[in-house]
Design a protein that fits this description.
With 320 residues, this protein is an all-alpha fold. Helix content is 79%, strand content 0%.
Length: 320
């Protein structure tokens, strides 16, 4: 791995604000971001990414790469939860295994946003259609997780609520916002987009830094859960994302030659959902323990990906 790349990432202000949030929690500081402000910032980040992706898409030519990329993204979102489930059910209940598998097969919009900032620092561009692919990858893993729970645990609750989960996955607020912003950005002219550029672009990194500070505070609060969880969840939350991201970094060359696009594929495969999946599992698998899969995704996988994961995946793409 390129250690200069790792060093550059570790001194990224956005990442350092994330670490500050964790430190503040461990020191029992009263530092916090008000919930309403945190929600606004997360909505802003999704809006900004979607809109800019739409603008990029408007300037790109529709070709087979977009189709192949969409198929590849959905395939990743389907296959990852399947093999994760069979690993997990050796240690956990069917409900917990399905929920964790769905989380690791689905994607994290926040990791995606952070990855885009990382690409900008490294001066690599990515195609606008990758925003749409990110949104497409969120629902399939949730559906596969539910199907696996249904097959291995004949539970009437899962059968009767399957339709609700599918609907929730497809109309999830983050998916709807990023797809809607993508469409609006696609339809807007260059002149219209320039009119809101100070909001969509100029202040983006500042908002990202504050948002990651909030994520650091939230992660720090979840770390204590692992004191009672043993070694397996921690190891899984590091090794599986590392394997997923590294494999997809290599395989992505089958559908794209663009470094930025391949990196986005890798980070999406390595990420774990801690927003859409917990909301869906609350409906379909109330016995699944959010105190297990939420900290795994947020307190272990997310920090690993934004500190060490991103430089590793980019190095694989550049040198393999």
């Amino acid at each position: 791995m390129n250690f200069n790349l790792l060093l550059d990432n570790l001194t990224n202000p956005a990442l350092l604000f994330f670490l500050l949030g964790i430190i503040a929690t461990r020191l029992k500081s009263d530092l916090e971001i008000p919930p309403n402000s945190s929600k606004f910032i997360s909505l802003y980040l999704l809006f900004s990414i979607g809109f800019k992706g739409g603008q990029e898409l408007a300037h790109s030519h529709f070709d087979l790469e977009i189709i192949y990329s969409a198929i590849f993204g959905v395939f990743i979102a389907i296959i990852i939860p399947v093999y994760c489930f069979f690993i997990l059910k050796r240690k956990f209940s069917i409900e917990n295994s399905g929920a964790i598998a769905a989380a690791y097969g689905s994607v994290s919009a926040v990791t995606f946003v952070t990855a885009i900032s990382f690409l900008e620092i490294q001066k690599y561009a990515f195609s606008g259609h990758m925003v749409a692919i990110m949104a497409l990858m969120e629902a399939p893993a949730i559906i596969i997780g539910v199907i696996l729970m249904k097959i291995f645990n004949k539970n009437e609750v899962i059968k009767t609520k399957m339709k609700s989960v599918i609907k929730h996955s497809l109309t999830n607020g983050s998916v709807l916002l990023i797809l809607g912003s993508l469409l609006i950005g696609y339809l807007a002219s260059d002149q219209q987009a320039m009119g809101i550029k100070p909001f969509t672009t100029d202040i983006f990194k500042g908002f990202l830094a504050i948002f990651l500070l909030d994520m650091g505070i939230l992660s720090g609060k979840k770390l204590n859960v692992f004191i009672k969880s043993g070694w397996f969840p921690v190891v899984f939350a590091i090794i599986i994302p590392l394997i997923n991201g590294s494999l997809v970094a290599l395989l992505s060359q089958l559908v794209s030659n663009e470094i930025g696009n391949r990196f986005i594929f890798a980070i999406l495969a390595a990420s774990a959902s801690y927003i859409a999946v917990p909301a869906a599992m609350k409906i379909v698998a109330p016995k699944a323990n959010p105190g297990l899969f939420l900290p795994m995704a947020l307190a272990i996988t997310f920090p690993f990906n934004i500190t060490f994961g991103m430089p590793i995946y980019l190095s694989i793409i550049l040198y393999c």
